[in-house]
Design brief:
The termini are far apart. It is built from ten helices and 33 strands. The chain is of the alpha+beta class. Helix 3 (381-389) crosses helix 6 (470-480), helix 5 crosses helix 6 (470-480) and helix 7 crosses helix 10. A hairpin with a 4-residue loop joins strand 28 and strand 29. Strands 17, 18, 19, 20 and 21 form a five-stranded antiparallel β-sheet that branches. Strands 1-2-3-4 form a four-stranded antiparallel β-sheet, with no helix packed on it. The radius of gyration is 23 Å and the shape is globular.
Length: 601
């Protein structure tokens, strides 16, 4: 029996309105797109975080029935129960909040206890063993927020490296492992002082997934991908020399070189792994592979983790040919967050594209039940394009998807060769896709003037996949047209500019800075090709297409070659007024104010 939510047709890809937090199910419409879920300590309840409907759903596990749904913050990102089982915590990155929920067992309802304003694009949550404190990764400000769950206030924030999306605590709550997706490393932080004790590098790492502490508290496990900087061709892709998937672990009790295992099978790769669960005693590890629509099940104690000198480029043959050690379970859609029941065989999966929670038996390798969370009454063209965007099967041997390089529709932390600018080994930063349908021409050199042709080339050239149908290209463009930047987290709560940003706007608009010569209009691009003396003689095309400045705070590399590692470096060195326009350099205060303005765009 499926429990279906009744609602009116959404006007687009996501719901047309954002109901007030705590609003009941009747006011929520459209696709739910669950990105994460959590199971209660007693195994009685599952709660999901639904990204495109800005809601949380409550499922009664005994009869697998959807019993409640309420509106929460904008763009839910991560969800967890506190260890005592009393509270449910949900971060919403676009609204910068963490909602604290409680389950009313008698009424079978979700209740909002409080909404904590937490900071800039909050995502992953880890909770102290005594359930008094939550630690939340703030992706946009490179910080961890420490939240007092009793008072519902932020006690302090401490700095980390770039893009601290997901994190996990050791069992006594003294050490926090944080995946720094923007700089390819894991940081282990002393919770008391907030200081980083040590970091473990992930060479060429991108797209770090959810993190999980082992049963004995020794390790933090996580999936990630590597970009190997080799030319895009059939041989390199099939050898795992372009993009590849890994499972890793770092020690929480002291520095030791990270250990890793390769996940990709020849001819049938893995892509975009996201979440992990462990059976009791760490007998088995289960990973969700969102790009290849499956769960990966490993016998953990003899999984071939290798430190220095490894792992190899492809899965260890001992795993590949032994179903007792490694198994793949096809679930379809886009499996994301997971939870495991106390029976150590039932895994609950938040399936984003299926708008459902799947009940998967990892012993029999089958989806035994599917709980419908609710969807738009009619699939839009954009939703079809979303399915293509997240589908690694569109690439050669399913090694990577559009999402792999454009995580969340944005960018990643690497310079990449997409084989799209006329020459091999022409590395450029990945351009974000928000507003891409409005910012022609395309590519860094601006040679691409037909977006439909650009979709074709992305699939057959960058992904080395089969030629897409015209309807597929139309669907992709429709989906790209829905991509938006989050509300800017560097603005005041009412959307206004800070005093420093206001001064920076004056600098931006001044004749000396000359920013408006190229970065003009509502999208801060003139759509023209300019020679700003940052090119190379090896470039096939000359001059560079003016990139939009909207959402520039979200990057960790700037300029086409990614050489600028901060906005301050952009405006005072690599792309300063004296170098671009021959005008006077900015003063120290002008540069600081200009950076604040750029971050607010």
């Amino acid at each position: 029996m499926f429990a279906t939510v009744v609602g009116t047709l959404s006007a687009g890809l996501a719901i047309a309105v954002s109901p007030k937090a705590g609003s009941p199910v009747a006011s929520i419409v459209g696709d739910r797109s669950p990105v994460d879920l959590a199971i209660s300590l007693d195994g009685k309840w599952i709660v999901t975080a639904n990204e495109t409907s800005n809601s949380a759903s409550l499922i009664r596990v005994a009869d697998q029935l959807l019993v409640d749904e309420i509106a929460i913050g904008d763009h839910p990102a991560n969800i967890t129960f506190t260890p005592d089982g009393q509270l449910v915590l949900v971060t919403s990155d676009w609204s910068g909040t963490m909602h604290v929920l409680r389950i009313d067992d008698g009424q079978e309802k979700l209740r909002v206890q409080k909404a904590v304003s937490i900071g800039k694009l909050p995502c992953g949550i880890a909770v102290s063993p005594d359930s008094s404190t939550a630690y939340v990764g703030l992706v946009a400000s490179a910080e961890i927020a420490e939240v007092d769950l009793v008072s519902g206030s932020v006690r302090r924030k401490f700095a980390t490296g770039n893009w601290p999306r997901y994190l996990t605590l050791n069992h006594d709550g003294t050490r926090l492992a944080v995946g720094l997706a923007g700089q390819s490393e894991i940081a282990v932080i002393d919770v008391r002082s907030g200081e980083t004790l040590y970091t473990e590098p992930l060479s060429s790492g991108i797209n770090l997934g959810q993190m999980l502490t082992s049963a004995d508290g020794t390790y933090a496990y996580f999936p990630w991908m590597v970009y190997r900087t080799n030319p895009i061709n059939v041989r390199n892709i099939q050898l795992g020399w372009v993009l590849a998937s890994r499972m890793g672990r770092v020690r929480l009790d002291g520095p030791s070189y990270r250990e890793a295992a390769s996940l990709d099978e020849p001819g049938l790769a893995v892509a975009d792994s996201h979440d992990l669960v462990l059976t009791s005693g760490d007998e088995r590890l289960v990973a969700s592979s969102s790009g290849t629509h499956e769960l990966l099940v490993y016998r953990l104690h003899d999984m071939p983790f290798i430190a220095e000198g490894g792992p190899g480029d492809l899965i260890d043959p001992q795993l590949r040919f032994n179903p007792q050690r490694f198994n793949r379970i096809e679930v379809g859609g886009r499996p994301m967050g997971m939870a495991i029941a106390k029976d150590d065989r039932t895994v609950f999966v938040a399936n984003y594209l299926k708008n459902s929670v799947q009940v998967v038996d990892i012993n029999s390798s089958e989806v035994v039940f599917e709980i419908d969370l609710g969807a738009a009454s009619e699939k839009t063209l954009a939703r079809t394009g979303m399915e293509i965007f997240y589908d690694a099967e569109r690439s050669l041997d399913q090694w990577y998807s559009c999402q792999t390089c454009h995580q969340g529709g944005g960018t990643n932390s690497k310079m990449m060769d997409t084989f799209n600018d006329g020459t091999e080994m022409s590395y450029k930063t990945v351009l974000p896709l928000q507003n891409v349908t409005r910012t022609d021409p395309w590519t860094w050199h601006g040679w691409q003037t037909d977006l439909t042709d650009a979709m074709h080339r992305s699939v057959v050239s960058s992904m080395q996949g089969s030629a897409p149908e015209p309807s597929d290209k139309a669907a992709l463009i429709a989906f790209l047209g829905t991509l938006q930047h989050p509300p800017n987290p560097f603005r005041n709560a009412d959307g206004s500019l800070s005093e420093s940003a206001l001064r920076g706007r004056s600098v931006f608009e001044s004749r000396n800075a000359a920013c408006l010569d190229c970065h003009s209009g509502e999208l801060f691009t003139d759509g023209e090709i300019h020679d700003v003396d940052t090119g190379s003689q090896t470039d096939h095309y000359q001059g560079y297409n003016t990139p939009s400045l909207l959402g520039t705070y979200a990057k960790v590399r700037w300029l086409h070659n990614g050489r600028a590692k901060s906005l301050m470096e952009v405006v005072t060195d690599r792309h300063s007024p004296d170098k671009v326009s021959g005008n006077d350099p900015l003063s120290e205060s002008e540069a600081a104010d200009l950076v604040e303005y750029l971050k607010s765009l």
